[in-house]
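Pipeline run #58 for the internal structure catalog. This entry was flagged by the ingest filter as a single-chain record with no existing model, so it goes straight to prediction. Upstream metadata was stripped on purpose; only the residue string is passed forward. Reviewer on rotation: M.T. Logging verbosity set to normal.
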Amino acid sequence: MHLKRLITAVIALPVFYLLVAKLSPVFFLGLLILVTVAGQKEFHDMYKAGGVPSLIGMTGGALFLLSLLSSSDTVTPVGVATASFMAIAAARLFTIKDPSSSLKDLAPVIVGFLYIPPLLSAQWHLRLIGYEWILFLYGCVWASDSLAYYAGKGLGKRKLYPEVSPNKTVAGGVGSFIGGVIAAIILGKLLINMEVWRLAVMGLSIGGITIVGDLVESMFKRDAGVKDSGSIIPGHGGILDKIDGVLYAGPVLYFLTTVLIPQ
């Protein structure tokens, strides 16, 4: 398992850097669209949701992110979200005549739509500020996850939230905070050149919210009765297993850039 994770990281990290730093923001948006479609598909599969509503949900997720390019007042993320809900619900209405279990059928598609595309959209706004912020975001989340894992494995005894994630420990949670702060200070000085206290606030926030994002996905997986959201990434599980922390950390970091970056 560790070898697979290492091999995947060695291959993926340089490719990720080149895709983020050397190609245009529009290309990065295309990557986000691919991730959101794959993530929604995994979420639907976890709950065995499929058919036309699922296809509409994934299409709506892609259009939600694509609408971020629009300067038109009539084509907005809110408009796309509204139209997507209407189409998803109408698809269930007309493809299955029996109204029983309609909410159960629609819930995974609608929750998947709300869970993934809007949270990923924050990364588009960060990319518009500068590619450095994407590298900063993923670097801090990776450091938080890594230090949480090793601190929990080596020092963890007291469980953090056993009902949702039996393997997570309080020591791992502390490690996540520490990893976020250390990475933020190092990466911030290399990429952004901000004051240490601002970077520390960002790192502390990312370290904390990464835990929440991880637990939220664990909650969904435990409810669905699956160990991993998928198996698309060798040694890492599915797309959602890999981006659960960054889904929550992205919006938080974008908010912090609006209040902590000197104007």
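catalog note: Residues 196-224 form the longest helix (29 residues).
catalog note: Strands lie at 159-161, 165-169.
status: ready for reviewer M.T.
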